[in-house]
Design a protein that fits this description.
Order of helices and strands: EHEHEEHEHEEEHEHE
Radius of gyration: 17 Å
Largest sheet: 7 strands, parallel
Bound molecules: 6-phosphogluconic acid
Structural class: alpha/beta
Helix content: 25-40%
Strand order of the largest sheet: 1-10-9-6-2-3-5
Distance between the termini: 19 Å
Shape: globular
Number of strands: 10
Length: 247
């Protein structure tokens, strides 16, 4: 695994813009080399402004008809619910882009969680043309970092952290909404590029533990992210990076 690449900006506003620039750049490269860009989107609040910038200020920087949108996790709520990661992405980005329905591959948070996880695995297997034991290789997986060091919906101590075969699973976590769907570590670690976004003083201790802490993914789930043939990029603001010794 290559050393994580840290990009540290002065503040959250700069982070949102830089993340949009990086995503647009990666999209261009992927579309140029293999005709499409497959992005696995993060939920939570941090990426919202970046999604909006991609659909507005950077609208002309991406050939949107060649982009395939997936989700790394979803809350088990309807797609128009305030807690829905699909709803957030649709509001901030997708609704502002002229996309075909076949470009958007959302996790069905409104369905029975276990069935929704199986359905999402089928969708990934079909779209990426996977055989048994294969994993999709996203051009980019976007991830956030929870205060409790979770990422996607891989929470401390969850058996999903040790999943080796499934592509997506349903989990029950100690945060609202409790029932969630998440991609699994083998999917994240098969990506070409993984990009973490974290902003604010509130994330500094989590960033420190994950990047420089003792290796313990059950305690610090974001440490499970180790692409075996890909890179990790951390886009941080100064506050979130403030406890790092090497920055
Ligand atoms: C989710 C996310 C989750 C998120 C972190 C950080 O559905 O909540 O995918 O992993 O990225 O909780 O959330 P914030 O960006 O809101 O701090």
């Amino acid at each position: 695994m290559s050393e994580p690449h840290l990009i540290i900006l002065n503040d959250a506003q700069e982070l949102y813009v830089r993340a949009a620039e990086e995503i647009a750049h990666v999209a261009g490269e992927a579309i140029c080399t293999h005709g499409e860009f497959t992005i696995c989107l993060s939920g939570g609040s941090t990426p919202a402004a970046t999604y909006d910038l991609l659909a507005t200020r950077f609208h002309l920087s991406v050939d949107w008809k060649e982009v395939q949108f997936y989700w790394g996790d979803e809350r088990c709520v309807p797609p128009d619910h305030p807690e829905s990661n699909f709803a957030m992405v649709n509001r901030t980005m997708l609704s502002k882009l002229a996309l075909r329905p076949d470009q958007v591959h959302r996790m069905r948070g409104e369905d029975t969680p276990a069935l929704a996880a199986v359905a999402y695995e089928h969708e990934l297997r079909k779209r990426f043309g996977l055989g048994d034991g294969d994993f999709p290789r996203f051009d980019l997986v976007l991830l956030g970092l929870g205060d409790n060091r979770h990422t996607a919906s891989l929470f401390p101590g969850d058996p999903a952290l040790h999943e080796t075969l499934r592509l997506a699973v349903s989990v029950e976590v100690d945060a609202e909404p409790r029932k969630r769907l998440t991609i699994t570590p083998p999917v994240i670690n098969n990506a070409q590029r993984v990009m973490f976004l974290a902003a604010g003083q509130g994330k500094a201790a989590a960033v420190k533990d994950v990047i420089e802490g003792p290796r313990d993914p059950d305690k610090f789930p974001a440490q499970i992210v180790e692409p075996h043939d890909g890179e990790i990029i951390w886009i941080l603001d100064k506050a979130a990076a403030s406890l790092l010794s090497h920055r």
